[in-house]
Design brief:
This protein is α/β, with parallel strands linked by helices. It has a single domain (3-149), classed as 3-Layer(aba) Sandwich (Rossmann fold), CATH 3.40.50.360. The protein has 6 helices and 6 strands, in the order E-H-E-H-E-E-H-E-H-H-E-H. Strands 1, 2, 3, 4, 5 and 6 form a 6-stranded mixed sheet that branches. A hairpin with a 2-residue loop joins strand 3 and strand 4 (57-58). Helix 1 packs across helix 6. The longest helix is centred in the C-terminal third of the chain and has 15 residues, at 135-149. The radius of gyration is 15 Å and the shape is globular.
């Protein structure tokens, strides 16, 4: 199965850590939205889409990329994110899920974990969730793909 993970990690490398852990677990290639080769996307059976959460949604570069994708009926996808407050993940993942569904993807699951956040006003208090994602978070990310891919 050809697998690709498209991720955007901006401030502290939180999402990059999760993307790498998942990629190692399922032998996937990693690429950022601005570096994507559309022919490579068309050749994949499974694609992971992930970023940090900004103002209650995934990074704009990831959302814009999905808008540019052709309809890819029958492909599987999963979604992941990191955020300082991962309590509302189901809500925050909705926009990306809807966009992917419109492109014909079958969404097999989604994952989120804490990530060190100093964005906006959080910077004034030194940030939240320092040290995350930690080893336990990364193991949960690996468990997520094993469960959803039946590895």
């Amino acid at each position: 199965m050809k697998t690709l993970i498209i991720y955007q990690s901006v401030h502290h490398g939180n999402t990059k850590k999760v993307a790498k852990a998942i990629a190692e677990e399922i032998s996937a290639d990693l690429v950022k939205p601005g570096e994507i080769d559309m022919t490579k996307v068309k050749d994949c059976d499974l694609i992971g889409f992930g970023s940090g959460i900004y103002f209650c949604k995934h990074h704009v570069s990831l959302l814009n990329l999905v808008d540019k994708l052709p309809v890819l009926e029958g492909r599987k996808a999963f979604i992941f994110s990191t955020s300082g407050v991962p309590l509302f993940t189901k809500f925050w993942h909705q926009e990306l899920k809807q966009k992917l569904s419109k492109k014909g993807f079958n969404i097999i699951g989604d994952f989120s974990c804490k990530g060190f956040a100093t964005y906006g006003p959080l910077k004034l208090i030194g940030g939240i969730d320092k040290g995350h994602p930690d080893e336990k978070d990364l193991e949960k990310a690996k468990d997520f793909v094993r469960k959803h891919l039946k590895i």
